[in-house]
Design a protein that fits this description.
2 domains; Rossmann fold; 6-stranded mixed beta sheet; single chain; alpha/beta
Length: 381
């Protein structure tokens, strides 16, 4: 039996904290954050019933770090590291050999490098390799459901000057009709373009303006490190699929409110092999839920489980870089053990087939037309 742990935290303070402390729904958010800041991490659920196609079985634990997204980016880094280290120590005491970093715990500071150096006897992974893999799979599948095949699509990668964005562009370039690299500075985009050009089917374009870069994009993957939203309703082509891998989010919440003709997803929901159950810790008759279908999980959590099932107790994905090799390797391991993309999530909720159909119908009715302005720079192949 292999063992793992995974760190979670409240995304919405009132909603998530109120599950344990009902009075929380009546408190001002600032007061609520002051309260949970004083709480130590805790084990909130067990993970049972996971069984690989190879026959290997797995058990694990969900450990809650009681900090909100805002606290992760505003509190002193040493304080945040201390809380995460406490989570790691709980995992070690439970017998886990690897711990995964969920949501904002994977992007705070140096992406797990410092935490891994502080924890002895347990491996650490951010889960970003499988997150990238399922984001690409999800974006391509979402486009197909919207009636667009990858081979006919213009793909835009926002944050393409960074490691994760560059990796997304490299992988997609082999099949997309064209690739638009969007970022803040041309030197970084040019470096990515050189990597991408050897794999690309057609023209690689570079943009330092988001609006221009997305104007004719059928598929958008966005992975910047921006603090504020960079993709607004007016930037997106009708009928486009936007996959937001960034934390904090790159896509403004206005998009969901104002653009019913675009499909926004935040990565894939993964079907876990076996009969996964999440009994609450100390309350075995109650089940913990991420808000997805039973037996499914986030991709970052799935990476942690995949590595545990494989017996790969190593710091697989750390820091701010993800390579094509890592994405391809974790994808291969996922196939071996029986993990696969099951559906999508958007703004922390599952995306239904009905919602996708509504978006597709709205896009067909949309009077919006787009024309692509001249890019600031391009690299013809």
């Amino acid at each position: 039996m292999q063992r793992f742990a995974f760190i979670i935290h409240p995304i919405d303070a009132k909603r998530d904290v109120a599950r344990k402390y009902p009075i929380a729904r009546y408190l001002p958010e600032a007061l609520l954050e002051q309260f949970i800041k004083t709480r130590d991490p805790m084990t909130v659920a067990a993970v049972q019933g996971v069984k690989s196609n190879t026959g290997e079985e797995l058990e694990g634990w969900l450990i809650a770090c009681p900090l909100t997204p805002r606290q992760f980016v505003t509190l002193p880094l040493d304080f945040v590291y201390h809380r995460l280290e406490q989570c790691g120590q709980i995992a070690i005491e439970l017998g886990a050999s690897i711990i995964g970093l969920g949501a904002f715990t994977s992007v705070v500071g140096d992406g797990g490098i410092t935490l891994a150096s502080r924890l002895k006897g347990i491996a650490v992974t951010t889960g970003n390799s499988y997150t990238v893999a399922t984001a690409i799979q999800g974006a391509v599948k979402g486009a197909e459901l919207m009636g667009v095949a990858l081979r006919d699509a213009t793909v835009a990668v926002v944050g393409a000057g960074g490691s994760i964005g560059g990796t997304c562009a490299e992988i997609l370039a082999a099949d997309a009709a064209s690739i638009s690299l969007v970022g803040r500075g041309l030197p970084a985009l040019e470096a990515t373009a050189e990597r991408v050009s050897s794999r690309a089917r057609s023209t690689v374009r570079m943009f330092t303006d988001v609006a221009q870069g997305l104007r004719d994009a059928d598929i958008v993957i966005t992975v910047t490190s921006a603090v504020d939203a960079v993709i607004l309703p007016e930037h997106i082509k009708s009928g486009a699929v936007v996959c937001d891998v960034a934390r904090p989010r790159d896509v403004s919440t206005r998009v969901a409110a104002e653009r019913n003709d675009v499909l926004v997803i935040e990565g894939g929901v993964v079907r876990v092999p076996g009969d996964m159950r999440l009994p609450k810790y100390g309350k075995p008759d109650e089940q913990f839920s991420f808000g997805f279908e039973p037996g499914t999980a986030y991709a970052c959590m799935s990476e942690t489980m995949i590595l545990a099932l494989e017996g790969r107790y190593e710091n697989f994905t750390l820091g701010k870089e993800v390579s094509v090799h890592q994405v391809e390797e974790i994808s291969s391991l996922a196939d071996r053990h029986g993990f696969h993309l099951e559906g999508f999530r958007s703004f922390e909720r599952a995306v239904t087939a009905e919602h996708i159909e509504n978006v597709r119908n709205a896009a067909h009715r949309s009077p919006l037309t787009t024309t692509c302005n001249e890019p600031e720079s391009s690299l013809p192949l």
